[in-house]
């Protein structure tokens, strides 16, 4: 696996029971996954020679993030190393311009969008689509609200162009809430769909995920799952695909983002589904039959733990574990920095209000924003 | 953790979500746990200097097995390293003579027993307890049927004395079945009890565990749990304690063996309980509040996978995963040798016959004793 973040950490955890040999390419020996994996190569994934040396002897390569240059992935494939997801799929999660063009081509519902050249062009796009605000995104390199701007005027629109990366303009969708349709697809074409979840963002960062999305009609849930399955098939995705969606006021779903790897909106599956997204990602990448994606509880809630005031989590563990013996804590071994995702908690049960409160309390306590 | 077997492997897996730093002392770099842990020291646990060097910088030491010499554990404690379970507790899992003496002292029900000196003394013991057969055990070093003999005559009784280790004689109990009462206890005295399970042995090796034990009356289940809690408290156990029991024909339980570490009879908890034995062992050893031990399913069945004809498990995975998408496979990364425990499977559901059949089929298929 390329990339030493928490997704690699949790993928390794999920791979241990299968007895597979897991090798990691990590930026540093301190990265989240590097702390818990036996075979770690420290190196730069942007360097093709490093990637090639790492890949030697691997049966298959997969990823913790989407940042490996597409041309390097093509080079690995040319060397005969299976890359899953492959570059032709992954480019759609790497480049938002390519993603929007392809989704439009296959008729997947998207916000109105086009590549814009400069602030004047943004104003023209606003004119075409009903006015400001407009969402601007650099086509490459963004995540967790980085590389995304909501601009309210032409004068406001200069910043995104400074990076020298192409900029995509999208209408600001009047959405009721955000959903995610997560599926896993294997090379031989088997696919499983997890229940559609609601994803609640705070300051552009995922805060809480509720599985399944409350009061989501069967029709729309089915549509969202079918949409994700169709995107995976049309784009040739192998592994976990997260399709982040807007639920519009008029009862439609529009594709917001794609991620081709385990995803924050699927962390609830570790404790809430029969097979976790991580286990199914491993199975897909190895072309093994996929595990049952159905939920094990009526409701599962995931809340992210952001870095706060506790450099040492031990005291917080004492409180949280004693208060809620059913609580599931997942920490990433990261240095605590304010605002950084350092872990998440999962709770489950039959009473949604209770399940949400337990996750909220634990996440806030572990961050240090509450003390009782 | 001292010892690189599958228990350490699964303990590491369970510790990853807590963000703890896990260090392993392993006999070889190829041991089951050494394959998946980042920080591995290769060395001999029988050597005190090796143990001392390993323990330096550890907040606490725990074990994959009971074989570390008791006097070495006392030396580590004298060095100021917390050892959990400590030597005063662990000696009861190391030395069956000490265990029987202590259990008798606290009034825990045991088969009739005494240390025997030679075959003539075995015959005398048989005389006292109703005749042959008699069970002979070396007081140290046995596991999985090794170090245990069922002898039918004085002439039969020579073998156990050849090792030069003290020999314990026990009456051969006329039991209905074997049970296990598993509990976890923390240094501050909190304890949780898992449901009592039925353990089915084949050729002296655990084959299948059913949780909870079918048709076990509430009274006897409660007695078994109370007995395990009392033993843990009286012996000062910290961490997971497995109390292996005989259920007698007249409706009592007798203590067969003690294990003070995660145990084969608790593997079902990985997929069948809210908190696994491994997670609770870690929490106990770190003196954190314990997790909820209750089951998540009506029935959970664990069946061990013994080494068989498949050196490579991939083809078997294809069949087993496709046949049963809910199957949970746990392999240990061990070289497959005939008869060696190389993994286990867990299944769960509402219909015990179905749950058992699925576990049986998968274990047999993975071993290679069936091919469809």
TrEMBL record, chains A, B:
This enzyme's EC code(s): 6.3.4.18
Entry-linked InterPro entries: ATP-grasp, ATP-grasp_carboxylate-amine, ATP_grasp_subdomain_1, PreATP-grasp_dom_sf, PurK, PurK_C, PurT/PurK_preATP-grasp, Rudment_hybrid_motif
The UniProt record lists the keyword Secreted: no
Binding residue positions for ATP: 96, 137, 170-173, 178, 256-257
GO molecular function, one term: ATP binding
Annotated PROSITE patterns: ATP_GRASP
Pathway: Purine metabolism; IMP biosynthesis via de novo pathway; 5-amino-1-(5-phospho-D-ribosyl)imidazole-4-carboxylate from 5-amino-1-(5-phospho-D-ribosyl)imidazole (N5-CAIR route): step 1/2
Annotated GO CC locations: cytosol
PANTHER family: PHOSPHORIBOSYLAMINOIMIDAZOLE CARBOXYLASE, PURINE BIOSYNTHESIS PROTEIN 6/7, PUR6/7
UniProt xrefs under HAMAP family: PurK
Assembly behavior: Homodimer.
Function according to Swiss-Prot or TrEMBL: Catalyzes the ATP-dependent conversion of 5-aminoimidazole ribonucleotide (AIR) and HCO(3)(-) to N5-carboxyaminoimidazole ribonucleotide (N5-CAIR). Catalyzes the ATP-dependent conversion of 5-aminoimidazole ribonucleotide (AIR) and HCO(3)- to N5-carboxyaminoimidazole ribonucleotide (N5-CAIR).
Similarity-based family: Belongs to the PurK/PurT family.
Name the record gives this protein: N5-carboxyaminoimidazole ribonucleotide synthase
Organism field: Streptomyces atratus
């Amino acid at each position: 696996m390329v990339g030493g973040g928490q997704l690699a950490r949790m993928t390794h955890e999920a791979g241990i029971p299968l007895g597979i040999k897991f090798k990691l390419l990590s930026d540093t020996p301190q990265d989240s996954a590097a702390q818990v994996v036996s075979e770690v190569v420290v190196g730069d994934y942007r360097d093709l020679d490093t990637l090639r040396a790492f890949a030697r002897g691997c049966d298959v390569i997969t990823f913790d993030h989407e940042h490996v240059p597409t041309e390097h992935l093509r080079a690995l494939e040319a060397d005969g190393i299976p890359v899953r997801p492959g570059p032709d799929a992954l480019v759609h999660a790497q480049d938002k311009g390519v993603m929007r063009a392809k989704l439009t081509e296959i008729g997947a519902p998207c916000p109105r969008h086009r590549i814009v050249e400069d602030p004047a062009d943004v104003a023209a796009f606003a004119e075409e689509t009903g006015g400001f605000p407009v969402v601007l995104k650099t086509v490459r390199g963004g995540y967790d609200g980085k590389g995304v701007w909501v601009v309210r005027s032409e004068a406001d629109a200069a910043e995104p162009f400074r990076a020298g990366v192409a900029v995509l303009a999208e209408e600001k969708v009047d959405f009721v809430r955000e959903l995610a349709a997560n599926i896993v697809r294997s090379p031989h074409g088997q696919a499983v769909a997890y229940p559609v979840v609601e994803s609640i963002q705070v300051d552009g960062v995922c805060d809480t995920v509720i599985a399944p999305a409350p009061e989501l009609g069967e029709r729309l849930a089915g549509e969202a799952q079918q949409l994700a399955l169709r995107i995976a098939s049309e784009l040739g995705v192998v592994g976990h695909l997260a399709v982040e969606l807007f639920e519009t006021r008029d009862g439609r779903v529009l594709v917001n983002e794609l991620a081709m790897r385990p995803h924050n909106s699927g962390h609830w599956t570790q404790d809430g589904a029969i097979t976790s997204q991580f286990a199914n990602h491993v199975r897909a990448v190895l072309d093994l039959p996929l595990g049952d994606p159905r939920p094990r509880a009526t409701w599962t809630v995931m809340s992210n733990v952001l870095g706060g005031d506790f450099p040492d989590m031990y005291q917080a563990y004492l409180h949280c574990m004693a208060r809620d013996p059913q609580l599931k804590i997942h920490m990433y071994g990261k240095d605590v920095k304010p605002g950084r995702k350092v872990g998440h908690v999962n709770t489950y049960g039959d009473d949604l209000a209770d399940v949400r409160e337990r996750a909220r309390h634990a996440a806030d306590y572990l961050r240090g924003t509450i003390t009782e």
